[in-house]
Amino acid sequence: MINSTFFFNVLRFILLVLVQVLVFNNLNFFGYINPLVYILFLYWYPIKQNRTTFIVLCFLLGLFVDIFSDTLAINAAATVTIAYLRPTIMRFVFGVNYEFQSFKLNNSTKAQQFTFLALLIIIHHLAYFTLEIFSFSNSLLILQKTFTVGISTLILCILFSTLFSSKKE
Amino acid sequence: MQQIINFLIRYKTFLLYLFLLLISLVFTFQSHSYHQSKFLNSSNFITGSIYSFSDNITSYFNLREENNSLVEENKRLRDKLFNNVQLSGITIDTASVDYEVIRGRVINNSYADQRNYVTINKGQNDSIAQDMGVITDKGILGIVENTSANFSTVQSILSKKSNINAKIKNSNHFGSLVWGNTQDYNIVQLIDIPRLVPLTIGDTIVTGAMSSIFPENIPIGTIKRFDLDNSKSFYFIDVELFNDMTNIGNVYIIKNLNRKEVLQLEAETEANDQ
After folding, report:
1. Where is the Rod shape-determining protein MreC beta-barrel core domain (chain B) (predicted)?
2. Is residue B18 assigned to a domain?
């Protein structure tokens, strides 16, 4: 059981990095919109796992995307931030429910899943574009990019999570 | 001591987070200075191989376009050759050659970030080194930044860090080519041209002679719009690039054989100055 979860997560990790760098980094929709779909890893990752491993894994995820796309370590910084904040976000979205053993992402309502994903994306993109642009005189540009790229990431993430939903009925 | 350990155990997740965040911030900020990080770049073996595998597949889709542009370039070179008859009689003396050209292929390209890099499939094994110029058949592309055995990353002219000596064709008024408006990937800016220079929209901008990276007179683009800057004594010129930065295939890497000598001389002069 543990082995299969581990195996699935490793496979997901590799596939998400490859999909991100080979497909979505070359999308350049409207000239600059490249959705960061690898965030789905944090959305899909099991809740009941060791938190330390999770944070280290997310750091590596960001770092791999960085190495491929020559973005220094911006992705790593943004990803490790949402990895750390994930329990807080989950408590905010799902209430105390999520701490019970029986809690599963699939059992929660669509609205809750959506809010959870949207919050992850907003915080990640805000951190990402703040570090990328890195000047307060361009804060409008940061917000504009966070909004436009965030929307596209959200749409694609919802599509992917519906497509590869673990509940096949 | 017990308390310190307790504290560490209690806040271990937070401390781990801070530690990892610090690492990534250090990586990010150390490369805000001149050169890109030595470790975090796509010129290494794994990323290079994956990108060249993907390029092997996707390069078929624009073979026709690629062929046309190469034939076009051949035609231009032949025009020059036929109109320059005496040249064909002279054998080129390799000792007097200033530049060496190496061909390469772009395997990964970006133009939507603030600092854009291009990965090419030639590296140290093909005698590529840092600070060599990279051009396409239409115009300049960037400067080699990091190399591995078989791949290199090129800092594109679409980068906040890019600063290239450029001038107006057929004159010697030079300025610096920078990328100010980081939203538009077809326009770069030429600054520091004095206001007394007569300019016309459509004038060609080429590389200047001050650079030890690019040879003189490599085309860059045409003037799209010009205006005086805040000090009212220099022009601020928008240059529309000849290159379509979104669609780059074959490139040429230029090795300046005199670069070492030039740099050494400049360093000596500076040292004597002090």
Report:
1. 106-255
2. no
Q: Would the CB atoms of B113 and A133 count as touching at under 8 Å?
A: no
**CB-based contact B157:B177 (threshold 8 Å):** yes
Per-residue pLDDT tens over the stretch B166-183: 988 888 888 899 887 767
Q: Domain segments of chain A: what residues? A: 2-163
Measured CA to CA, the distance from residue B274 to residue B272 in angstroms comes to 5
- Give the residues across from B167 on adjacent strands: B174, B206
Domain, as residue range, for B109: 41-257
How many domains, in total, are found in chain B?
A: 1
- Give residue-wise pLDDT tens across range B87-112: 555 555 666 678 888 888 898 888 88
DSSP 8-state symbol, B160: T
Q: Is A47 on the interface with B (CB under 8 A)?
A: no
CA A41, distance to chain mean position in Å, is 6
Q: Give bridge partners of residue B190 from the DSSP assignment.
A: B177, B237
State the residue for tokens 């669609």.
B247
What does the pLDDT look like over B233-249, one tens digit per residue?
Answer: 888 888 999 888 888 88
- Supply φ then ψ for residue A38, to 5 degrees: -65, -10
In a domain, B272, yes or no: no
Whether B152 and B123 have beta carbons less than 8 Å apart is answered as yes
DSSP letter string, B143-184: EEEEE-SS-EEEEEEEETT--EEEEETTS--EEEEE---TT-
